[in-house]
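Researcher: Can you fold this with manganese (II) ion in place?
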Amino acid sequence: MKQYNIGVIGGDGTGPEVVREGIKVLKATAKLHGFGLKFKDYDFGGERYLKTGKIIDDAEIAALKKHDALFLGAIGHPGVKPGILEKGLLLKLRFALDQYINLRPVKLYPGVETPLRNKGPEHIDYVVVRENSGGAYTGCGGNVMTGTPNEVATQEMIYTRFQVERCLRYAFDFVRKRHSKKNPWRGLKPEDVEAGKIGQLTLCGKTNVLTFVFGLWERAFHEIAAEYPDVKTDYCHVDATTMWMVKNPEWFDVIVTENLFGDIITDLGAMTQGGMGIAAGGNINPQGLSMFEPIGGSAPKYTGLNVINPMAAICAGAMMLDTLGETKAAAAIETAVTAFTPRMKSQAAGKMGFSTTEVGDELVKMLKQQAKPKK
Ligand code: IPM
Ligand code: MN
């Protein structure tokens, strides 16, 4: 039997609670699909930092590398100044493990309320491939004459051809993977299908102002596109992207973008799919160790109340199985989620019509039901 070792960082606030439900669903899925999952807990996060002053060191990162995947709850503690844990733990791990892709599906599940008028699951179903290693997140810059009226602050958006190219190649491959077993993406026009296209990749940039960085992205995009004649290409400035994400989300299939733009547009995307309670993401190193997380925060005010929505963690678990190659098991979770969301009153904490633990229990029941041979 295939065994996977998963490192678990529950983290702060409601992180451990949502991760617990994710693990519950993952364990049940593994049992039904004939593979093993072993989980090992790590206590990185705000509590430990406040007690010991330690965030994470190189030896601890080396220990994490022994796992097949990492499962993360949330990072962020009201007692810790903003930036310390974000940079010291979350970004540190993304960089140290070279998780250069942040994969964020924007998918409206059935019965989930969206603030977008007249839009349903058939309109909101795309994926953002966020570059996760460079840009403004590189940390190049600084302050001089700090605290004086002449203070200067810089924070540079830096990209290498290498970073841009590996991200774009991932995105093009992802479009192929997304549509390989399915019919072509339904947003294609008949003439696109006629021309042999199966899906669409939209580059989101700002070529009209940030001409250096997006000049590089745009050139690389078109060069690489020539190797993927089956993928329709499209371009959108980031400001216009936010507009179309609200007005015509059905125009998107896969969006690829740089780090900070991806950070911003995926929060918008999350709201259109029902909020942070249901938005999942993966920090992916396609050749190495990946880390899956609900994209929302630690929601400290709901800690310990058994009211937080664990759906994002459950969906992140499905993404993890998919990346590990357990595609059937991942699809089974997806099917159970699709069947369960219409039964939820809301995706908001405390308003789901279920407690946190009940959501996990219900999904396990549905998975078992699904797996029963049909009479
Ligand atoms: C996210 C978060 C992080 C980011 C923060 C917490 C560092 O907002 O995962 O989107 O900016 O990437
Ligand atoms: Mn963010």
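Model: Folded with manganese (II) ion in place. The mean pLDDT is 97.
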